[in-house]
Design brief:
With about 325 residues, the chain is mainly α. Helices cover about 75% and strands about 0% of the residues. The N and C termini lie far apart (about 55 Å).
């Protein structure tokens, strides 16, 4: 009896082990396939951008270039960076300043919606969420007309006889951030509102008892405790403003922002200009669509350098702070 039972146990354990092995093989193949599908474009990218432009399109060149060259990067840099490093520096500076404005304004709005009791607060919060859900194209016409004929309660027209035209001026983008209509700024307000709402009321009451007024409580107590939310919004704000082409394209197309330059230079309508520029600059006898794509991909890699630096610096504490920032709360 014991021998039969022992035999059945061994068979059961063997079947269980085989089942676990098959499951592991299945999941390994699934994960390997997903990784390959995600990484394939990146793997395929480097042989293209490191290949000599004259060898592109050669059927003999698949993974390993016959002649290695960084001409794609040189051409991409020359097309993108009209003012050298200053072009990228200007874009990074703009993104950082806009990010700081959006963090400052969003934190105040989020705190007011979370901790200040007033009539209509729920309606205002509903409108904040509505702005996030509504496509920005639905607000473009009214915003464009407003900034094209900018005025504050008729003051400018009263003193100067005319309104201000703020289109194609950097101040327009800052005004969007100051009024809560920056790139995905409604999401930032939501994050701060959820975070401040979860802070214990006893902390605020203790500050009031110690003699802190409303403003001092906010700046000395509440804001320093909102570092997880601030860090999350700061990273998102920088990345999204750095890559924005919608607001910069409509409100300040002449600002020289790297994302907008990248979009316009490598537009399909400018393909012939780019190819002719490559011929003239580098005396290439033959360039084709493959050359255009190689230079475009090299420019994307250059464009991503600041974002990769921000990611590697911030990814550790960003992941830790996401749960506390209110996104999943």
């Amino acid at each position: 009896m014991k021998a039969e039972l022992s035999k059945e146990v061994k068979i059961y354990l063997r079947h269980k082990k085989q089942k676990r092995f098959i499951e592991n093989v299945f999941f390994f193949c699934l994960i390997a396939g997903m990784c390959f599908a995600i990484l394939y474009p990146v793997i395929k990218l480097f042989p293209t951008v490191l290949c000599d432009l004259e060898d592109l399109g050669n059927p003999d060149v698949i993974w390993i270039p016959i002649k290695k060259s960084v001409l794609s990067f040189t051409a991409a840099w020359r097309l993108m960076m009209k003012n050298g490093w200053m072009t990228m520096g200007y874009t990074i500076g703009y993104s950082a300043i806009i990010m700081l404005v959006e963090v400052f304004i969003s934190a105040m709005i989020g705190f007011a919606l979370a901790r200040v009791k007033f009539k209509g607060s729920n309606v205002i919060f509903f409108l904040v969420i509505l702005v996030f859900l509504v496509p920005p194209q639905a607000l473009l016409l009214s915003q464009y007309i407003h900034f094209k004929n900018f005025d504050i309660l008729g003051i400018f027209q009263m003193f100067t006889g005319d309104t201000l035209d703020l289109i194609d001026k950097p101040v327009t983008l800052f005004l969007l951030g100051l009024t809560g209509f920056g790139v995905n700024q409604s999401l930032y307000i939501f994050i701060f509102r959820q975070f401040f709402k979860n802070i214990p009321k006893e902390l605020e009451e203790a500050a009031m008892i110690d003699g802190c007024g409303f403003n001092k409580t906010y700046f000395k107590i509440m804001l320093p405790n909102a570092k997880p939310a601030i860090s999350t919004v700061a990273v998102l704000g920088f990345v999204w403003n750095y890559g924005d082409t919608y607001y910069t394209g409509y409100f300040n197309p002449g600002g020289g922002y790297l994302s907008y330059i990248l979009q316009t230079v490598f537009d399909s309508a400018n393909k012939e200009y780019t190819l002719n520029a490559l011929k003239v600059w580098y005396k290439l006898p033959l360039v084709n669509d493959f050359s255009f794509d190689a230079v475009k991909q090299a420019s994307i890699l250059i464009y991503l350098i600041p974002l990769l630096i921000v990611y590697f610096i911030a990814q550790h504490w960003l992941v830790e702070n996401l749960e506390n920032s209110g996104i999943v709360g």
